[in-house]
Amino acid sequence: MKVQAIKRRFRMSPQKVREVVRQIQGLNAVEALNILQFIPRKSAKAVAQTLRSAIANAENNHGLKGDTLIVERAAAETAGSIKRFVPKARGSAGPILKRSCHIRIILSSAPAN
Known about the structure:
The chain is an alpha+beta fold. It has a single domain (2-109), classed as CATH 3.90.470.10. The chain is 36% helix and 35% strand. It contains 3 helices and 5 strands. The strands form 2 sheets. Strands 1-5-2 form a 3-stranded antiparallel beta sheet. The longest helix has 21 residues, at 42-62. The chain is elongated and about 65 Å long. The mean pLDDT is 94.
């Protein structure tokens, strides 16, 4: 069984979030939460929040236990960008893209051994 949680329009570039998300892929869900606790990045807090939401979805909606869940897929997908402009020389303007991302975490129940 697969369960997912998505945090939409998180105001950080997907590139920065992917560095954190790659570290938890394939791990046990509880172990991944412990690892995220000690990563000193803003994105780690948002990924942990999404992971906790996915665990809660699995427990409340599907009756699974949090100990048996594995992070099958964790991804930071591109969301919309806020466009701003900064003044440049000779009356021109330079674009600034303030990027956002969607954090998607998919958990699966561990195979019974």
